[in-house]
């Protein structure tokens, strides 16, 4: 059985503050984290985290990929040693994709190595197999995939799932007259990539031509499907190792940016996902905020 929250709102549409909020169960006005730099244990208080709670109550707590926002906002150590039982696993890519700022849209051939989300799934699968054979504790396993975050680097075969002729433009592609200026994105991060910078988008609306919007939406969709395939591999491993019946699965994102729509909104549709082999779930339409533990 599962439940999906259709009105689950992030506390802030920025990675670091949102992750800090739902991992500590506190709002940004308590954590005092409003940017990508501040560490809540330094600027606000020594608040426990969700993985730390499990660790302190007899669980093996293991993190792979991107859970906390890396760097100063997680104490330069992905909040180790507080949150994790053993060494945190960043799971680095083995495929060299060149400069991270070269292109926002970057389909690749994965035969020469593995992208980071592939490695994250591999390591999660290996960890569960090892725990099934040798572990003697219940576990909390946090698996943080990077996609569909920019840049959209993904195995090129996923483009075939989304022919450009099947991609639809956003319903609203220009700034509505009745929204405040701060609600309109200037695509600052996206414009930092060379392929988008070459479009010479101009203020104040930074309008993207329709043909370019289609390519961006195609790449975003391909990135989502690539990540979804890795998630499927992890769920399959959960099943094969005998953990399905006694494991709670929570699937969420830190926030969402609407592709080629320009509304920088602080919401994410689904906070909990239905396990593919599970029974039919419930949908909750009431307001939900990402601080509950």
Automatic annotation (TrEMBL):
Species whose genome carries this gene: Batillaria attramentaria
One MF term in GO for this entry?
Answer: metal ion binding
Q: Which domain of life is it from?
A: Eukaryota
**What's the protein name?**
Sulfatase N-terminal domain-containing protein
Which cofactor(s) does the record list? Ca(2+)
Protein's UniProt keywords contain Hydrolase? yes
Read off the SUPFAM superfamilies from this record.
Alkaline phosphatase-like
Give the similarity note: Belongs to the sulfatase family.
Q: Which UniProt keywords apply?
A: Hydrolase, Metal-binding
Q: Residue ranges of the Sulfatase N-terminal domain?
A: 3-257
Tell me if Hydrolase is a UniProt keyword of this record: yes
Under InterPro entries, the record lists:
Alkaline_phosphatase_core_sf (IPR017850), Sulfatase_CS (IPR024607), Sulfatase_N (IPR000917)
């Amino acid at each position: 059985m599962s439940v999906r929250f259709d009105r689950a709102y992030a506390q802030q549409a920025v990675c670091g503050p949102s992750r800090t909020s739902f991992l500590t169960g506190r709002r940004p006005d308590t954590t005092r984290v409003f940017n990508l730099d501040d560490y809540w244990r330094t600027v606000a208080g020594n608040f426990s985290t969700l993985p730390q709670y499990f660790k302190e109550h007899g669980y093996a707590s293991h993190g792979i990929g991107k859970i906390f926002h890396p760097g100063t906002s997680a104490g330069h150590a992905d909040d180790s040693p507080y949150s994790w039982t053993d060494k945190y696993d960043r799971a680095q890519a083995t495929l060299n994709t060149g400069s991270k700022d070269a292109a926002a849209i970057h389909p690749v051939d994965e035969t020469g190595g593995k992208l980071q989300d592939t490695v994250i799934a591999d390591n999660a699968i290996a960890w569960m197999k090892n725990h099934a054979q040798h572990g003697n504790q219940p576990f909390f396993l946090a698996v943080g995939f990077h996609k569909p975050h920019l840049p959209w680097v993904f195995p090129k075969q996923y483009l075939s799932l989304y022919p450009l002729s099947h991609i639809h433009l956003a319903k609203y592609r220009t700034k509505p007259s009745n929204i405040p200026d701060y609600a309109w994105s200037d695509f600052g991060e996206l414009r930092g990539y060379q392929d988008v910078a070459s479009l010479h988008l101009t203020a104040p609306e930074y309008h993207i031509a329709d043909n370019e919007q289609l390519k961006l939406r195609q790449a975003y969709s391909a990135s989502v499907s690539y990540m979804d395939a890795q998630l499927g591999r992890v769920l399959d491993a959960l099943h094969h190792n005998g953990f399905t019946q006694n494991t709670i699965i929570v699937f969420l994102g830190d926030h969402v940016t609407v592709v080629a729509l320009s509304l920088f909104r602080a919401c994410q549709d689904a906070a909990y996902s239905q396990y593919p082999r599970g029974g039919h779930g419930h949908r909750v339409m009431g307001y939900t905020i990402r601080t509950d533990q």
